[in-house]
Specification:
The protein is mostly helical. The protein has a domain of about 150 residues. The chain contains 8 helices and 4 strands. A hairpin with a 2-residue loop joins strand 1 and strand 2. Helix 4 crosses helix 5. The protein is extended and about 70 Å long.
C-alpha cells in the first residue's frame, strides 16, 4: 500500500501469518471454542447473576459517606456523583478517614495555574481570567451533559425555542463557560513533560479522571464480581481490539 503496509506472509511450516507475537487473519476468524460466548457464563434468563458474579458494596463506607434511604429513593444523583468525582478534597470534607482521591478542587487549581502562567491571562494585558472554583467546574460539566444541541451556544439563545435551556442559562453565563473551556486543565502545566523527552507520560493530560474514578470506585466496593466491562467509546473506531472481542465490524455510532 502507499503507506508501506504489506501482507504478512504465511509461515511455511505452520501456515500462520505471525509477526512479533501477533497473528493476522485476512479471510475472517473463527473462535477455536465455538461454545464460548461473550455473555456472563452461568447466567440464564431466570438467573442473571449466578453465584460468584455478585458485586457487594461496602455498606459501612457508604453510610459513613452519608448514604441514606431517602437519598436512594429520591435518586440524589449529585451525592453518588461526588462519591466518584469529589467536589471537595477528602481532607477538607469533614468526614473521618475520607480516602477519596480529589478531583474538582484539583482541576480548579490546575486550570487557574494554566490560565495565569501559560496563557498569560493575569490581566496586565490581553484577556483577563477570573479564577474558577470547584463549584463552577461542576456546573461546567453539567452543561456538557445536559446540552441537547449540536451547537452548545444555542442553549443560551432565547430566540432558539427548541434548544434554549433555562437551567443552563441561569447556571452559568455563556461567556464564562467559554472562558473556562479555553483554560480547562487536568494536570500541572509546570511539571508537564513534552513528547520525546525522558519520562514523557502520554496520559498526563487526562489520567486524573481515570485515577479518581478507579480509586474512588474501589472504595465503594467491598467485594467485586468476576465480570469485566467493555468501553463502548472504542466502538466508533470499529477496528482496533482483540480479535475475539467482537468490536470489529460494529456499526459506527455518533457521540
Amino acid at each position: 500500500m502507499p503507506s508501506g503496509a504489506t501482507v504478512v506472509p504465511k509461515d511455511a511450516v505452520t501456515g500462520k501469518r505471525e509477526r512479533n507475537g501477533y497473528e493476522f487473519f485476512y479471510n475472517g476468524w473463527q473462535h477455536p471454542f465455538p461454545d464460548m460466548t461473550n455473555h456472563r457464563r452461568g447466567a440464564t434468563k431466570e438467573n442473571l447473576f449466578p453465584e460468584g458474579r455478585e458485586v457487594i458494596l461496602d455498606k459501612d463506607y457508604l453510610c459513613k459517606m452519608g448514604l441514606t434511604k431517602k437519598r436512594m429513593m429520591e435518586c440524589d444523583a449529585l451525592f453518588f456523583y461526588q462519591l466518584l468525582l469529589p467536589i471537595v478534597d477528602g481532607e477538607e470534607s469533614g468526614i473521618p478517614d475520607d480516602g477519596r482521591l480529589g478531583f474538582y478542587e484539583t482541576v480548579a487549581k490546575m486550570t487557574n495555574l494554566y490560565a495565569i502562567i501559560k496563557k498569560d491571562r493575569g490581566g496586565t494585558r490581553g484577556h483577563k481570567f477570573s479564577a474558577c472554583t470547584a463549584e463552577e467546574l461542576v456546573v461546567w460539566d453539567g452543561v456538557v451533559c445536559r446540552n441537547q444541541s449540536n451547537n452548545i451556544a444555542e442553549s443560551w439563545m432565547t430566540d432558539q425555542t427548541n434548544t434554549y435551556d433555562r437551567s443552563i442559562a441561569e447556571a452559568i453565563n455563556y461567556r464564562r463557560w467559554l472562558d473556562i473551556k479555553s483554560c480547562l486543565k487536568l494536570n500541572n502545566c509546570m511539571t508537564e513533560t513534552k513528547r520525546g523527552t525522558v519520562n514523557y507520560d502520554p496520559t498526563q493530560k487526562y489520567r486524573l479522571v481515570w485515577d479518581a474514578l478507579t480509586h474512588n470506585m474501589n472504595l465503594i466496593i467491598l467485594r467485586a464480581g468476576k465480570d469485566t466491562t467493555a468501553d463502548e467509546t472504542t466502538w466508533p473506531n470499529s477496528s482496533y481490539a482483540d480479535v475475539h472481542s467482537r468490536f470489529t465490524n460494529k456499526k459506527n455510532r455518533q457521540g
